[in-house]
Amino acid sequence: MTTTLQAAVREDLRNSRLAKIRNQGNIPAIVYGKTYESKAVSVQEIAFIKTLRDQGKTGVFKLELDGEKTDVMIYDMQVDRIKNRVLHVDFYAVDMKVEMDADVPVHVIGESIGVKEGGVLQQAVHELSVRALPKNLPNSIDVEVSELDINDSIQVKDLKSGAKFEFNNEPEEVVVSILAPSEEPEESEEETEEKEPELVGSEDKKETEDK
């Protein structure tokens, strides 16, 4: 069953009105598209959070406005990280028959052999650009790293794109790599003693030698 999110038109576009909208449990938003006239709207905060959890950022769902339903996806969000609250949402009206580009989050799966041996996992890319029909856009790109050893890496070309979508990133772009441990070996007491200058003469000479 297709998810439907209710929206209401915002007639008063003054900035002073935004705080009142949020205090009423709603989120100011805008909906637009290539063939869709831009409209300022608001949606219920609780309903939006549920839709986001169910559909993800790249999921397509219905936005109902004045009895008319439009296929949309979440294009952008402004979030207050301190209060953990969504402040504004951009909805993009999609054409289900036309391919589009979207940034899809990368999720690293598993613990690599290299990390178990003391290596450090470095995730160089947190999002990948994907092109597909709106209904075929993945919610995430899962990267399995269990078999990676120290100095191994995974590039975009190593990922198996689905039959219904393709990557826009360069094939050689590194997504994840396992770095070697960077700890330097400690000097032994014997080596330290050999490097110390012989203490001869006055304190002034000692300071000169130390320098």
Automatic annotation (TrEMBL):
<dbReference type="InterPro" id="IPR011035">
    <property type="entry name" value="Ribosomal_bL25/Gln-tRNA_synth"/>
</dbReference>
<feature type="region of interest" description="Disordered">
    <location>
        <begin position="178"/>
        <end position="211"/>
    </location>
</feature>
<keyword id="KW-0689">Ribosomal protein</keyword>
<comment type="subunit">
    <text>Part of the 50S ribosomal subunit; part of the 5S rRNA/L5/L18/L25 subcomplex. Contacts the 5S rRNA. Binds to the 5S rRNA independently of L5 and L18.</text>
</comment>
<comment type="function">
    <text>This is one of the proteins that binds to the 5S RNA in the ribosome where it forms part of the central protuberance.</text>
</comment>
<dbReference type="InterPro" id="IPR001021">
    <property type="entry name" value="Ribosomal_bL25_long"/>
</dbReference>
<feature type="compositionally biased region" description="Acidic residues">
    <location>
        <begin position="183"/>
        <end position="196"/>
    </location>
</feature>
<dbReference type="GO" id="GO:0003735">
    <property type="term" value="F:structural constituent of ribosome"/>
</dbReference>
<feature type="compositionally biased region" description="Basic and acidic residues">
    <location>
        <begin position="202"/>
        <end position="211"/>
    </location>
</feature>
<keyword id="KW-0699">rRNA-binding</keyword>
<dbReference type="InterPro" id="IPR037121">
    <property type="entry name" value="Ribosomal_bL25_C"/>
</dbReference>
<dbReference type="GO" id="GO:0008097">
    <property type="term" value="F:5S rRNA binding"/>
</dbReference>
<dbReference type="Pfam" id="PF14693">
    <property type="entry name" value="Ribosomal_TL5_C"/>
</dbReference>
<dbReference type="GO" id="GO:0006412">
    <property type="term" value="P:translation"/>
</dbReference>
<feature type="domain" description="Large ribosomal subunit protein bL25 L25">
    <location>
        <begin position="5"/>
        <end position="91"/>
    </location>
</feature>
<dbReference type="Pfam" id="PF01386">
    <property type="entry name" value="Ribosomal_L25p"/>
</dbReference>
<dbReference type="InterPro" id="IPR020930">
    <property type="entry name" value="Ribosomal_uL5_bac-type"/>
</dbReference>
<dbReference type="InterPro" id="IPR029751">
    <property type="entry name" value="Ribosomal_L25_dom"/>
</dbReference>
<keyword id="KW-0687">Ribonucleoprotein</keyword>
<dbReference type="GO" id="GO:0022625">
    <property type="term" value="C:cytosolic large ribosomal subunit"/>
</dbReference>
<feature type="domain" description="Large ribosomal subunit protein bL25 beta">
    <location>
        <begin position="100"/>
        <end position="181"/>
    </location>
</feature>
<dbReference type="InterPro" id="IPR020056">
    <property type="entry name" value="Rbsml_bL25/Gln-tRNA_synth_N"/>
</dbReference>
<protein>
    <recommendedName>
        <fullName>Large ribosomal subunit protein bL25</fullName>
    </recommendedName>
</protein>
<comment type="similarity">
    <text>Belongs to the bacterial ribosomal protein bL25 family. CTC subfamily.</text>
</comment>
<keyword id="KW-0694">RNA-binding</keyword>
<dbReference type="InterPro" id="IPR020057">
    <property type="entry name" value="Ribosomal_bL25_b-dom"/>
</dbReference>
